[in-house]
């Protein structure tokens, strides 16, 4: 299981990007997501699922994620999450990189 050592972030608040901040969560808290998006009504659930799936693929648990979305595509969301996890000290699985 990948564990975070510190708070980290990746991304920008530019159009078509997403700012991801990850932080270690309390023990047994699971994956907690705070999401703000300019396309929340249309794609909020899809963004949330992409965040959850990306973190789960890395075996990260007990994590807090804050996502400020400006219309990012799924591939951008995944890339930002993986970068933030890496910066926070998680050792990423090679096959995902």
Q: Layout of SSEs?
A:
Elements (H helix, E strand, L loop, with lengths): L7 E3 L7 E7 L6 E7 L2 H18 L5 E7 L4 H14 L10
Parallel strand pairs: 3-4
Antiparallel strand pairs: 1-2, 2-4
Helix pairs in contact: 1-2
Summary of the model, kept short:
With 97 residues, the protein is of the alpha+beta class.
What percent of residues are in strands? Answer: 15-25%
Oligomer: single chain
What's the CATH architecture name? 2-Layer Sandwich
Number of strands: 4
Using only CA atoms, what is the Rg?
Answer: 12 Å
* Number of domain units: 1
- Total of helices: 2
Q: Give the N-terminus to C-terminus distance in angstroms.
A: 17 Å
**CATH fold annotation:** Ribosomal Protein S5, domain 2
> What is the highest CATH level, the class?
Alpha Beta
Biggest β-sheet, characterized?
Answer: 4 strands, mixed
The unreliable regions are: none
Query: Which strand order spans the largest sheet, edge to edge or round the barrel?
Result: 1-2-4-3
Q: What's the helix-strand series? A: EEEHEH
Mean pLDDT: 92
User: What structural category arises from helix and sheet content?
Assistant: alpha+beta
Assign an overall shape.
globular
**Proportion of residues in helical segments:** 25-40%
